[in-house]
Write a structure and sequence with these properties.
Length: 380
């Protein structure tokens, strides 16, 4: 049945407006029957998938949130280079080598070059691989366009470079309005940015600042899992609109951060201890390179993880290796509460790293060397 604007609006609008709607009503959007929707086949090469496992796809947006000065721009640079080479970055795995455009407003040419060189030095790629990745990344500095004007620039860059993915760094530079006001954030994201994302079928990472700490500088002590998606400053729409959210959260060590996959995080298939047998998780610790002047991120080393958050599995494995083969001996040697030791022992048994005899003695299975039991290195 053809839509009749005049009939539909009769009695709802003044006659002259109803007549105008009937004449000027645009055609309806395309719609498909529900059975016609196609689900991607697991394990198949899904051309729409950008970050596995459908964490981010074409036509989707992701939010990268972090406190000021944390290194969000350098992380975006590292992600861009890794994705361009088809390599994972801190647990984010591209589906294939991607072409990337970075649109940024805050860093001068020297800053950008330092980030590029620091990332490449830290990753220690061959000169050939580094050159190939750089050729798939373009950087544009845009600091004079906001709102619809920025959306037009985004479209122009997509038309010129046909990227798979775009980084927009930072959101505040391009909104041109009140970040707290939904009535300004929603039109910007939903009606100006998303149409460009859909038109050019790209994935968009929006780099965004976190809220400033409350008085006293203390972070909120207790977060529910969904809270981390809303660490970004301003309206909840920043997280609501985006399909995925990554959040950097400070620790007491200025060089170490929690990386939280706060929305769609389980799609990344992260596991505790970075072991396939570990419990699913949406958080890992990341840190700056220890070498002075090398601007590069890496998985935090064991000694960089806050003591109360460390994977005690490695400590337990080492203690058993050194002769602490009972629950009591483990608790005494490591200063663990009995319940904590029991929880970690259960995980290590599930991973088949240790076994417990009928007499209650703990033994390493021998399948994984003691030092590699939790890190996942040098598996035999």
């Amino acid at each position: 049945m053809q839509f009749d604007g005049n009939t539909f609006f009769d009695g709802l609008l003044p006659a002259e407006l109803s007549a105008w709607v009937g004449v000027n009503m645009p055609p309806p959007p395309a719609a498909v029957p529900l059975p016609a929707l196609r689900r991607p086949v697991a394990g198949a090469d899904d051309p729409n998938e950008l970050i596995r496992y459908r964490f981010l796809c074409r036509g989707g947006t992701a939010l990268l949130v972090g406190p000021t000065g944390a290194g969000k721009s350098s992380l975006a640079m590292q992600m861009a280079l890794c994705f361009a080479s088809g390599r994972p970055c801190l647990g984010l795995e591209p589906a294939r080598p991607l072409s990337v455009v970075i649109i940024q407003a805050e860093n001068d040419e020297g800053d950008l070059a330092e980030m590029r060189d620091g990332v490449l030095a830290g990753l220690q790629w061959t000169a050939e691989d580094a050159l190939a990745a750089q050729g798939r990344v373009h950087v544009a500095t845009v600091d004079d366009k906001t709102g619809p004007a920025f959306a037009a620039v985004l479209g122009a860059l997509c038309a010129e470079f046909t990227p798979d993915m775009v980084f927009m760094d930072p959101a505040f530079a391009y909104l041109g309005g009140d970040a707290l006001a939904q009535k300004e954030v929603s039109p910007f994201l939903r009606n100006q940015i998303l149409p460009v994302v859909h038109q050019f079928n790209i994935g968009l990472f929006i780099v965004h600042h976190a809220n400033k700490p409350p008085a006293g500088g203390q972070q909120k002590a207790h977060y529910l899992p969904g809270d981390f998606a809303y660490l970004g400053a301003g309206s909840a729409e920043w997280a609501n609109v985006c399909r995925a959210v990554l959040a950097l959260r400070a620790t007491e060590d200025a060089r170490v951060f929690e990386l939280r996959a706060a929305k769609r995080g389980f799609r990344l298939r992260w596991h505790e201890g970075n072991l396939p047998e570990g419990d699913p998780t949406t958080m890992r610790y990341v840190a700056y390179n220890r070498e002075q002047g090398v601007i590069c991120w890496h998985e935090a080393d064991a000694d960089q993880v806050p003591r109360e958050k460390r994977d005690r599995g490695q400590d337990i494995v080492d203690a058993i290796h050194e002769g602490a083969t009972t629950h009591t001996a483990l608790c005494k040697k490591l200063g663990l509460k009995k319940a904590t030791a029991s929880d970690w022992l259960a995980k290590l048994k599930l991973r088949k790293v240790i076994v417990e005899t009928s007499e209650g003695d703990l033994r390493l299975t021998g399948k994984i060397p003691a030092r590699a039991a939790v890190s996942g290195e040098e598996k035999t």
